[in-house]
Design a protein that fits this description.
Largest sheet of chain B: none
Radius of gyration of chain B: 21 Å
Helix content of chain B: over 70%
Number of strands of chain B: 0
Number of domains of chain A: 2
Oligomer: heterodimer
Structural class of chain B: mainly alpha
CATH architecture of the largest domain in chain A: 3-Layer(aba) Sandwich
Number of helices of chain B: 13
Largest interface: A-B, 37 and 37 residues
CATH topology of chain B: ABC transporter involved in vitamin B12 uptake, BtuC
Strand order of the largest sheet of chain A: 2-1-3-4-5-14
Number of strands of chain A: 15
Strand content of chain B: under 5%
Largest sheet of chain A: 6 strands, parallel
Helix content of chain A: 40-55%
Shape of chain A: elongated
């Protein structure tokens, strides 16, 4: 899928270059307005995951003849992100594709942006359900349940389906992580009777690394100190799972590790066997699809109501239709698993 | 000594005017009502907290827990709202929690003779921890719009956000108190030489306790503004704000060693930091560069007055030499 996107992008750039400026105006697939001014805003810049996410968004922008800017704060807080939302209001953007750093704090700013005529699509991380009206749709990777249960399956594969496990999460307030963790609890109990949580229940088995490499390493060590018999650790965040893999390798530990990891970062640890499997969705696709959703909404061809559809891709072969589900959420599909068999391919991409 | 800080303050004001003029010319998005409204909203909490912090640093103390105090006030507001307490009462609770945060710092410093730097590093973590205890990992949202709209709307028929009223009131109180009252003179006296201040009959401990309590109160006020502006209360709110507040106070010409500073220097500095950020953002300067610029400005604000002081001392020495 990814290679195809890249190839398509290259082809588009080549065509656009040949055709000169006139191509930009009508490069957009039928129905999408040309020349839209689109802001792609991550929770924070300087993060490999969001760089990949923006890469997909930028590719889509080129396909539809839009002007794209990747901008956002250096710290992933709502307050910091609001300053950048204000900036795009001032600069009269048409479209905002945003990964919400805080599901509540950015809502008043988003409402102002909406009032200023900006079409908003959240992608990767949505706003609170009570504020669903502030955006057209949320383009999310996979349902929280499927992400949570998939991680339990991966850790079960690594521990042989037995032993007690812990979770090394991001911040205690991270809504994504909390939703996934909530799905892990009942699934582990019902599917893997020989497995358990180190703290008795899932809630008491979560440690918070705050998406900071040092804190994550400290919390990883804290898990092992507190529960020396821990069989496996799930880290549903790219920073945490990397820190865990590094620490496991440095100290030659036996605890199994899995979670959501960037293939480029986790590649060495999967290749040398430190980690059996990790998973993630493809952030490039996530950004790509979100830009299409937003551009179609800004062009008036997509409303975002439950059951309504939009498409992404600009050739017959790549074009794919997406349907809005309950809560105004559009899911990309299932989380994608990386292991020794495919890691090399994906490590080269993101 | 006094002339040096005066020069720096004047420099800030010139800088502020220059940035505004340059900003108006280099980007069409800067000089308009809606942007000024954004700038004021952006610096609101910092203005409110920089006022008491100016007193505190001039008196030779510091409060690193101010960001956590803000968050704890906001968390207390959210917590009491979640438990069905009338909203006006939640606001009073938030203010009381703010004062309590300041009082605890003040008592530890004045009654136990501990250093404020150490005490407030401790309470920085403690108050933040309490935010998580109160709210768990669930932020509070859906607060009454009649209140939260005050955080995002402007005063009718103007572009000024409601927080402007608080800034003007507290700015004026802070200014007159620092420069025209006995309390202000005491604050400087304590910062210049605490022993001399004690001997001259200034109730140093009571003064410092009051300053800490005032800082807590203003953190509470800022906490309410913050809660309204983001229409929510979250246990990780205002993380790192303490450093921004202290940085802007120092940028405003207040000496970290105490005894030196002006209120208008600080107010101009906070405004300048907001304006410069806005200009840079609107000219599409990246967030990474913004960090470098704000760090560089702070270094300059510490280095330039020092350089002036050194060159002046050298001149003084030279003139003494020629006299002898």
């Amino acid at each position: 899928m990814q290679k195809r996107l890249t190839r398509v992008a290259i082809a588009i750039v080549a065509v656009a270059a040949l055709a000169g400026t006139t191509a930009t105006a009508n490069a957009g697939s039928a129905g999408i307005k040309g020349g839209l001014k689109i802001a792609i805003m991550p929770k924070a810049v300087n993060n490999g995951y969001f760089t990949a996410w923006a890469k997909g968004g930028t590719t889509a922008c080129k396909e539809i003849g839009a002007r794209c800017t990747y901008l956002g704060p250096t710290t992933a807080t709502g307050a910091a992100q609001v300053q950048f939302i204000n900036q795009i209001i001032q600069q009269h953007y048409n479209v905002l594709v945003i990964s919400a750093a805080d599901q509540n704090a950015i809502v008043p700013a988003l409402n102002k942006a909406k009032a200023a005529g900006i079409t908003i699509v959240t992608s990767d991380a949505d706003v609170d359900a009570s504020a669903a009206a502030s955006r057209v749709t949320a383009v999310l990777p996979a349902s929280s349940t499927r992400i949570g249960t998939a991680e339990v399956d991966w850790i079960a594969a690594a521990t042989g389906g037995k032993g007690s496990i812990a979770i090394l999460s991001a911040a205690a307030t991270a809504a994504n992580q909390n939703a996934w963790i909530a799905a892990m609890g009942p699934y582990l109990t019902s599917k893997y009777p020989n497995m358990s949580w180190v703290g008795g229940t899932v809630d008491k088995s979560v440690f918070y690394g705050n998406d900071d490499a040092t804190t994550s390493t400290q919390q990883f060590d804290a898990i092992l100190a507190q529960y020396p018999n821990v069989a496996g650790i799930i880290s549903p965040t790219t920073v945490g799972v990397l820190a865990a893999a590094q620490e496991k390798k440095a100290k030659s530990l036996t605890v199994a590790i899995t979670g959501l990891g960037l293939p480029s970062q986790m590649g060495p640890y999967i290749t040398d066997g430190t980690v059996l499997k990790v998973g993630l969705w493809n952030p490039i696709d996530l950004g790509y699809v979100a830009v299409y959703a937003a551009a179609e909404a800004a062009s008036g061809t997509f409303k975002g109501t439950v059951g309504s559809t939009f498409y992404a891709g600009n050739t017959k072969k790549t074009k794919k239709t997406y349907t809005v589900t309950a809560g105004g959420i559009t899911y990309l599909g299932d989380p994608f698993t990386f292991d020794k068999s495919n890691i090399a391919t994906f490590a080269a991409i993101y | 000594m006094k002339r040096i800080s005066f020069n720096w303050d004047k420099g800030i004001l010139v800088f502020l005017v220059l940035t505004t003029i340059v900003g108006s010319f280099i980007t069409p998005y800067f000089a308009n009502a809606s942007n000024f409204s954004f700038v004021i909203q952006d610096i609101g909490e910092f203005m409110l907290m920089a006022i008491p912090m100016t007193f505190l640093i001039i008196s030779g103390e510091i409060d690193l827990s101010i960001g956590s105090s803000l968050c704890l006030s906001s968390a207390a507001l959210g917590y009491s709202f979640r438990h069905g307490i009338p909203f006006w009462l939640c606001i009073i609770i938030a203010l009381l929690v703010g004062i309590a945060c300041g009082l605890i710092n003040g008592i530890l410093v004045t009654k136990f003779g501990l250093q404020s730097l150490a005490v407030t590093i401790g309470t920085l973590a403690l108050y933040r921890g309490l935010c998580f205890v109160l709210l768990g990992n669930q932020p509070v949202n859906q607060m009454p719009l009649s209140y939260t709209n005050l955080g995002s709307n402007s005063i009718p028929h103007t572009f000024l956000p409601y927080v402007t009223i608080l800034i003007v009131i507290f700015g004026a109180i802070g200014w007159t108190t620092l420069h025209y009252t006995r309390l202000g003179r005491w604050t400087f006296a304590v910062g210049i030489n605490v022993e001399a201040a004690k001997f001259s009959g200034i109730p140093v401990a009571r003064l410092k306790l009051a300053l800490f309590a005032m800082t807590g109160l203003m953190a509470g006020v800022a906490g309410i503004v913050y809660t309204f502006r983001f229409a929510s209360a979250s246990p990780d709110g205002a993380t790192g704000y303490e450093l921004s507040v202290i940085a802007s106070v120092l940028f405003g010409g207040v000496s970290i060693a105490g005894g030196v500073g002006t209120m208008w220097g600080v107010l101009a500095a906070v405004l300048e930091l907001g304006v410069i950020r806005s200009v840079l953002q609107l000219t599409n300067v990246s967030a990474n560069t913004l960090l470098v610029v704000s760090g560089g400005l702070l270094l300059l604000s510490v280095a330039i007055p020092r350089a002036i002081e050194l060159s002046r001392n050298r001149r003084k020495l030279v003139s003494l030499d020629s006299k002898s």
